[in-house]
Specification:
Blueprint: H1 3-17, H2 25-38, H3 42-47, H4 54-57, H5 63-71, H6 73-92, H7 105-110, E1 121-123, H8 126-135, H9 142-152, E2 154-158, H10 165-176, E3 181-184, H11 187-192, E4 203-208, H12 219-228, E5 232-237, H13 246-249, E6 252-254, H14 261-273, H15 278-285, H16 288-300, H17 304-318, H18 324-329, H19 332-342, H20 347-359, H21 364-382, H22 397-404, E7 406-414, E8 419-427, H23 432-443, H24 448-459, H25 464-480, H26 482-494, H27 499-513, H28 519-529, H29 536-545, H30 555-565, H31 571-585, H32 590-604, H33 609-623, E9 628-629, E10 636-637, H34 639-644, H35 648-662, H36 668-684, H37 689-697, H38 703-718, H39 724-743
Parallel strand pairs: 2-5, 2-6, 3-4, 4-5
Antiparallel strand pairs: 1-3, 7-8, 9-10
């Protein structure tokens, strides 16, 4: 360690213990109070000993410590699992104040029995198919879906809940299959069934709800058996395409948007009132009040089932029995939902319902345990001097599921040592988490402190999925009452030296950041926290939030703020910036990924040595990011190489960053380690070798660069568990590039 590094480390330690600037005394007082409440061991907090970051296990005052934290395999796996848990929580809870959960649309619309029970191949009733034929509205791209199902006999329709995937699947299968349509509980059951159990000229409809059901499924091998029966299968899922196995992804078609809501409303309304009232129905749909309701439904992303119910409510208006404005002003869904919750027969049913709203999609045992914990919190609030009463045999699993209108499905659970089967519980109610949390917060003020205390306790647990779901639920509450949630929960989490608490704050901030009326407040809050005079935990929380949480809503602004933090001497802050930029790069939007690369490249050319170090560490973490599955081919790639393989300009940017990292002391070994990771991946997956050879050949600019690459490639080709084929291909690419340079 150099004398300069020692001096910077001393300055950083002093700065971490300082109070914030006098101009922010009010917030400082709250921060001090929160720290006193949440961090009794103040001396440990000031020294950073209470933080569970990987950087604390290393020497955080050295570049070696930073690079060890960036490249450590167990730390990377932990971060990836947490990121997946946060994404799953955001989807399942419907966090954007109107997102639906991953629910079974078909069951909900028609109140049919659950797919997980009854006959494995349950026939769809003829009256349901007749309703679909009568009311179905084609979307742009419907012809593409038709042709794909005709050609392949199998189709996977992916898209968010409420996009009409189930209606589309039923319409396609009903049109193509004379033997009717059957619903299947699990795709694995259909794929593994013997030929005698398959039906002739039959359409099979399957929904994948849990990500575990999308793994290790090879639909290709099943298609041949299906063709012999002249049958077809359509799989619908709200999962993202990268979550699907390669055997499913090759059949997948993603829906870009739902059908036009006004067209769906017209179709449903005409079916309700008949052809004789066609003109009156058109007049009703054209009313501004109806347009406003449709706009609200679109803004809340409530899905097509709300449009169907609106058509039923508008029927009397078309018949002249009531004014359109009166119908549109009423919102019966809230009253129905409130009446349902209040009518739950037992207190255990209510606490289980609340736990399901927060942990929807997690294993049944986890939800039941969380419900019991909430029940204990409520009992202690009622009788503070008496222990909670547990009625172990009061409610069976069937009682709880029937009361809250939920179902159990087969899923998978990651134990840290591999996946095991698990029974996950899913609500069948539309927009369930949002509706219930809003009801609790608006109608039960006495529950506020109990609810927040319970969510804080869940967010401090060991299960990353529970922590992420509880934090997202806090974010949903913050969208309803930001100031109180900020005072009582968010500020304490953000100012904590415990990494899990700070990550909970980051997850919670994502929800209000996506609301138009609160986004400006969240951005101002984050920009205030990044000030170098603020306590280090607040700076760390702000930097993390600028990744896939708050920063995803405005990438340019997030990168500008991260650039200001990039010259910090705090290596813990540098590590957080690395992860934030990696999260932004991992976006599905190529333009956003290239924007991140441009920023990292600009930091690398800065005169500030600390910003250069941050840029190189960020680049290596992006290069080492988890393997990426090409949505078109299902092939695995290093995410960075997949992004730049066909973009020469960015291939040159990446080559320049490799060059800087290889030639920078304290980064050279880590850079070669990351490159070795790419080489090993190419050894397993031959499709990576050619683009990797093009990328590696672009790296050397001097004789020193060339010698360094050759030396390491020769070493990797002869080591145990070596990569000889890839290493030789890369050596030949370097030789050919050198010959071209000499000829020029």
């Amino acid at each position: 360690m150099t004398a300069m590094d020692d001096e910077r480390r001393v300055r950083e330690t002093k700065k971490d213990g300082d109070q914030a600037s006098p101009g922010s005394s009010k917030i400082n007082e709250r921060e001090t109070a929160d720290k006193a409440a949440m961090e009794p061991a103040s001396t440990k907090a000031e020294s950073g000993e209470g933080d569970s970051d990987k950087a604390d296990a290393e020497d955080v005052g050295t570049l070696t410590g930073l690079m060890a934290a960036v490249t450590d395999e167990s730390s990377r796996r932990s971060r990836n699992l947490e990121a997946l848990a946060q994404e799953a929580a955001f989807r399942n809870l419907g966090a954007l104040a109107g997102h639906q959960q991953v629910a079974h649309q078909y069951n909900y619309i028609y109140a049919s029995p659950s797919l997980s029970g009854g006959e494995r191949f349950e026939p769809v009733p003829p009256e349901v198919l007749a309703k679909v034929r009568q009311r179905f509205v084609r979307r742009p791209g419907h012809t593409v879906l038709w042709r794909k199902l005709v050609e392949k006999a199998a189709l996977v329709i992916a898209g968010p809940a409420g996009y009409g995937k189930a209606w589309t699947a039923l319409h396609l299968l009903d049109a193509m299959c004379e033997g009717g349509v059957r619903r299947v509980g699990r795709l694995a059951d259909l794929v593994q069934v013997d030929d005698d159990s398959l039906h002739d000229q039959t359409g099979y409809l399957v929904e994948i709800v849990a990500a575990a059901d999308a793994h290790a499924i090879d639909l290709e091998s099943f298609v041949g058996r299906l063709r012999r029966r002249r049958s077809r299968v359509v799989v619908v899922t709200a999962l993202d395409l990268p979550a699907l196995s390669p055997g499913l992804a090759s059949f997948a078609q993603e829906l870009d948007a739902p059908p036009v809501a006004a067209d769906v409303l017209k179709s449903q309304l005409f079916a309700e009132v008949g052809e004789e009232h066609y003109a009156a129905a058109c007049d009703v749909v054209a009313k501004p009040a109806v347009g406003a309701v449709l706009a609200d439904l679109a803004a809340e992303r409530c899905g097509l089932d709300e449009v169907y119910r609106l058509a039923v409510r508008l029927r009397p208006a078309v018949l002249g029995e009531v004014d359109v404005e009166t119908v549109c002003a009423a919102d019966p869904s809230k009253e129905r939902f409130t009446a349902w919750f209040r009518a739950l027969p037992e207190a255990e049913d209510q606490t289980f319902a609340i736990a399901l709203a927060v942990l929807n999609g997690l294993p049944f045992a986890t939800v039941a345990e969380a419900g019991g914990l909430l029940h204990s919190h409520i009992q202690r609030a009622r009788r503070p001097h008496k222990p909670p009463r547990v009625r172990a045999f009061a409610r069976t699993t069937q009682d709880l599921l029937a009361a809250v209108r939920a179902r159990v499905a087969e899923g998978r659970e990651d134990t840290g040592y591999g996946e095991v089967s698990a029974r996950v519980v899913l609500s069948d109610l539309n927009a369930y988490p949002r509706r219930l949390l809003q009801l609790l917060w608006e109608d039960y003020p006495g529950l506020h402190p109990i609810l927040l205390a319970w969510l804080r306790e869940l967010a401090m647990g060991n299960d990353a999925r529970v922590r992420a779901s509880a934090a997202t639920a806090v974010g949903m509450v913050a969208a309803l009452d930001f100031y109180r949630t900020y005072e009582q929960v968010l500020l304490g989490w953000a100012g904590s030296w415990r990494r899990e608490d700070r990550q909970a704050a980051v997850s919670a901030l994502r929800v209000p950041a996506l609301r138009p009326d609160q986004a400006a407040v969240i951005w101002n809050l984050v920009e205030d926290w990044v000030d170098e005079e603020r306590p280090l935990p607040l700076q760390l929380t702000a930097a993390a939030a600028l990744g896939g949480s708050v920063g995803a809503s405005d990438t340019r602004r997030a990168l500008r703020i991260l650039e200001k933090q990039a010259d910090s001497v705090s290596y813990r802050l540098k590590q957080t910036i690395c992860q934030a930029a990696t999260d932004l790069f991992a976006s599905s939007d190529p333009a956003q990924a290239y924007l991140v690369l441009d920023s990292v490249n600009r930091w690398a050319t800065d005169r500030n040595i600390e910003r250069i170090r941050t840029s190189l560490a960020t680049f290596l973490q992006i290069a080492l990011d988890r393997e990426y599955t090409d949505p078109e081919t299902g092939a695995l790639w290093p995410r960075l190489l997949w992004r730049v393989r066909d973009v020469p300009a960015y291939r040159g940017v990446v080559a320049g960053l490799w060059r800087k990292a290889i030639n920078r002391p304290n980064f050279d070994e880590a850079a070669m380690g990351v490159l070795h990771h790419w080489v090993c991946l190419a050894e397993r997956y031959p499709h990576v070798r050619e683009p990797l050879s093009v990328q590696v050949a672009a790296i050397p600019e001097s004789e020193r660069d060339l010698r360094s690459l050759r030396f390491n490639l020769r070493k990797w080709s002869s080591e145990p568990n070596a990569s000889p084929a890839t290493a030789h291909i890369l050596l030949n690419a370097l030789r050919a590039e050198r010959m071209r340079d000499d000829a020029a």
